[in-house]
Amino acid sequence: MDLGGATVLVTGASSGIGRDTAILLSSLDARVILTGRNRDRLQETLSCLDGQGHRIEPFDFGHPEEIGDWLGALTASAGPLNGLVHAAGVELISPIRFVRQPDVEELMRVNLLSTIMLIRAFAQKARHASPSSIVLLSSIRGTLGAPSMSVYGASKAALIGLAKALAVELAPRQIRVNCIAAGCVETEMLARFRDSFSAEQFQALERAHPLGFGKARDVAHAAAFLLAETGRWITGSTMTVDGGYSAQ
Fold first, then answer.
1. Which phi and psi angles does 247 have, rounded to 5°?
2. Could you tell me the sign of the dihedral formed by the alpha carbons of 210, 146, 93, 17, in that order?
3. What is the pLDDT of residues 141-162, one digit of tens each?
4. Most exposed residue of 145, 151, 182, 227, measured as fewest CB within 10 angstroms of its CB?
5. Helix (H, G, I), strand (E, B) or coil at 83
6. Dist CA 175 CA 133 (whole Å)
7. Which of 82, 62, 80 is CA-nearest to residue 71?
8. What's CA 178's distance to the chain center, in Å?
9. Is 127:79 a contact under the CB 8 Å cutoff?
10. Alpha helix (H) ranges present in 171-248?
11. What's the domain range around 189?
12. Which residue numbers are catalytic?
């Protein structure tokens, strides 16, 4: 699990799973590049990291057309990346009858199109080390349905399909691509879910996780495992980290 000497880009690093992943990777001696939309919150994450050499590079993944130039400039300055943890994303909680086309387009632009363009940019020459590892944050909603989560689930299911295809395509370049399908983790997103549900619905959701709701660090450990030498023979896989939710 040692990541000494590795440079890893973590998106969505201003909060939640992205933040905890960045903190854990720094404790494993990785040099971490933090990105997200909010510079101040990225600075908060930066202040929590162990070691030296980390940096912040704010970026809004709502603009996928700018990703190629942005990552090119970043790697020209920081050097090739050994790893990428793509935790940035948005959610949409809505019954299908209330879903509007602009909402769907925004969610797919951020959750899917930006992922495609980010990996396209990462895979270009001189931007990644050899070997290297990409970890995409999917969700159990990409494999198991739930009311009001159809569009969000579709975007996360798409990441699983994307990872399988790219694992095969990019293997000759020694780039591994895997997903993590996370259950409900105690983050700001879960707090928003709580606001959308009745007390009874939220309690039922927690009971549906035999080990209870997870912590962001639980998912971060899985990401570190896939990035490090421990994951060297794993690609095209989806690691389920959900406290037993999908085992029932």
1. -80, -10
2. positive
3. 999 998 889 999 999 999 999 9
4. 145
5. strand
6. 6
7. 80
8. 10
9. no
10. 188-196, 199-207, 216-227
11. 7-247
12. 152
